[in-house]
Structures are given as C-alpha cells and as structure tokens.
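Journal club side-thread
Mid-discussion, someone asked how the predicted structure for our own chain would compare to the paper's figures. Pasting it here so we can look after the session.
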Amino acid sequence: MNILNGFSVNEEVLGMLFSMLMGILVGIFLWAAKEDPIPLPFLLFVIAAPVSVIIGVLVALKERMKQIEGGEEDAARKY
C-alpha cells in the first residue's frame, strides 16, 4: 500500500480500475467503428494498444497477488 498526497492507495484496486477504463476505451472504439465503419486492419491496430495494456496489468496484478500471499511484503517490513 502506498501513500499518495495523504491518501492510501491500494495497488490492486488501481490496477483493476485502470483495466476497466481501458476496457471502456475499447468499447468506445468498437462502438465508433460500428457507427462509422473503418478498415478492419486499422481498427485492430487501434484496439491492440489498450488490449495489450489490459493484459499486462492483469499479469502484473496476478504476480503481485502471489507476492503478497507468499509473505514478501511482511518479510520486507522486518528490515
């Protein structure tokens, strides 16, 4: 848990929030492409960036949860 300007910030919550925002962005891209069709290769290119970010964030969250369950954070507090 980090402290940012006096507020406690939970890394897992921020990661999920960011993933949800990227998912909304993908939804907006798909809706816009439905309303005004664009070439499929361009649509895939535009959607690839947020999708890759979502995948990266979820992988990082999974690894972080393993670290927390393994007690790494508790062990670091000893020093």
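Post-session note: DSSP finds three helices and two strands in the chain.
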